[in-house]
């Protein structure tokens, strides 16, 4: 096959995918306290040779411009180095009776270079999106226990989750009668004072079991609610 390719003037393309440790971000979400003007997040490069270009910005839940500025917005992160992203609130106007969801975007671009064997190397640009929750000062206390107020109801083949709190609740998992309830990642994020419907699996529905991701990225204990079909 190789002689044939050479005769046709076609050279095989070799794509090398080197193992990359990548950039490490010091958190899985950001809680922006309403009584502060800024917060921060660490980013580090654990690799020994490859530097990265880091670009960061905040946008709204629907991609709109957000009232936050990230500094530095663009910088080089050398091997073994760490830097701090400062997230600064540039204007007010957020609701004060509930949390508001934004997205922190962090894009890491590895330095382009040829490998030792002169083969083509494919470098992957990684974009990480972290939820940024603006939490009004009046809601500073209560977030840790808000998940306990989550309730569920059943109607026909639909399971409805009701979040009566002013906080976003990020479900890690839901099950009904021991069977997992199918849901997208977006559907597992319950907005303040909101309801969300999920299709029920066949069979018994009780108990409903769930757990929630905390401010620190860990999981709460599994909570259960006994429920029956109406």
What is the strand and helix layout of this fold?
Blueprint: H1 2-7, E1 15-16, E2 24-25, E3 29-33, E4 38-44, E5 52-60, E6 68-71, E7 74-77, E8 82-89, E9 100-110, E10 120-121, E11 126-135, E12 151-155, E13 158-162, E14 169-176, E15 179-180, E16 189-190, E17 195-199, E18 208-213, E19 223-225
Parallel strand pairs: 1-10, 3-11
Antiparallel strand pairs: 2-4, 4-8, 5-7, 5-9, 6-8, 9-11, 12-13, 13-17, 14-15, 14-16, 14-18, 18-19
Molecular structure report:
This is Fimbrial assembly protein. Belongs to the periplasmic pilus chaperone family. With about 230 residues, this protein is mostly beta strands. It has two domains: about 100 residues, Sandwich (Immunoglobulin-like), CATH 2.60.40; about 80 residues, Immunoglobulins (Immunoglobulin-like), CATH 2.60.40.10. About 5% of the residues lie in helices and about 45% in strands. The strands form five sheets. It has a five-stranded mixed beta sheet, with no helix packed on it. The protein is globular and about 60 Å long.
